[in-house]
Description:
3-stranded antiparallel β-sheet, 21 helices, single chain, 16 strands, alpha+beta
Amino acid sequence: MKRRMKKVAALLLSAVMAMGVLSGCGSSGSGGTTESAAGTEAASAAEGASQEAGETGTVDTSEHVDLKMYLIGDRTPDFDEVYGEINKILEEKLNCSISVDFLSWGEHDTKYSLLFSSGEDFDLIFTASSWCHYEQTVALGGFYPLTEEFIQTYAPDIWEVVPEVAWDQARIDGQIYMVPNYQNEFAQDVLAVRGDLMEQYGIDQITNWDELKEFYMACAENGMYAGQGGPWYQYFQEQGLSTTGGAPNAGELVLYNAQDPDDLNFYYLLDWDGFTDYCHQAKELADAGCWSRDVLNSSDERQTGLLTGRTAGMIWNMGSCRTYAKQANAENPGWNVTLVDPVSDLPKRVNSYINNGVAININSQHKERAMMVLNEFYTNPEVYDLAMLGIEGKHWEAVGDDQYKVIDETNYGVSNNCNWGWTNAEIQRTEYIEDRTALDDTYDAMLEEWNNNIKDAHPYDGFNFDSTKVSTQFAAVEAALGNYYEPLTNGLVDDVDASIEALRSALESAGIRDVLAEMENQAAAYVEE
Length: 529
């Protein structure tokens, strides 16, 4: 495959490429059920159409079409106005328009597959490996397979930008079903915490689990909730472990040692002593009052506790933490909210490119035009800026050729409308900070440190389990988790050991050993491939 790797400032592509070499062919590829007859026919049709268009050198756009796209999240107030401007460009260039519906964060898990099983008429949809239905929808035959000829014909600019490793990560049984995004995205959360409280409690830094726990206990002793639930991810990440793509409970039930490429073991939580250790510590923290006893019934967003002053901090990715830390500081200058990394001693994992992407519905009546529209979203700077930032002069203004300054972020929101599926680091603007604060300096220093400390690639970084062959057991395992898992990870059980044994028994009865055996088989085949 002829590919080119573009140079992007501030991206350590050599490290990402090294990860890609071991990522092989994307998802597990051992299920054997993902390439349906319909998919095979669609691939043949795509190749034929691409060759025909390639021979003529043009693509027929004489017929006007109206496309529909599904995104994840919630529509912001000015969204329709912004996409009205995008449609003006699409009408002029491609003789088409696009409308957008959203699947909210709370409903996409239940409604995503229904779009395909019901045969709903739409063209494009956001997807992602593991967390947003990529492997599952491919297994159901819901996505249109993208041949190289199809991509080159209808999205030639995307073909020039997306590196070969990203296409390889997107392959399932050798076939591509999504256009991956192109960015350096870190797979670790940080904390936004109130610096005034750290100073008040005599906490100088939070760089590891023990210091994080010390801060949590100090908050409780002073009548303040530290956060909105147990810091489970921070515990196992400090052990060098990461979630396994496609494993039950969004990958959490089976971990792997992402820091050691030679360790090909899976760490099933109920066989791992660390899970028991964490659950006992979580109960200690919960009993002390480090978070609300009602946390499992709360519908609060991650940032709610921090912004309302109910919690001393919040846990999220670095960018989101900075965004809400800035908001908290603007509304409460004395809080001095800052960023801390409780896993600061370990190299950082970069997410695979298929952690965000866009796919074409196999039932779309306008697949070629849909791909052409995606090409505009991905590589046309004018469309890209609109989708990410909003209307220039109303929501943002340009600073030089590659920066932006927010004018009004409240009615559209920077990168807040699921534009992540076509993130393109080659043309994405960075924010210009006019009046820099200590928070901005902390963020920049942390980002630079992370970019200079990317971990070595692990074979499982690109592995994603296909549960098709054990779908009954997988569903039973997911159902069994509901009664025990979150109470344990949030320390809200009376007897930790008894609850763990009850969870263990429930998972054994549900068929977890069948799931683990199939996962081991797929992982072995994936590594060999």
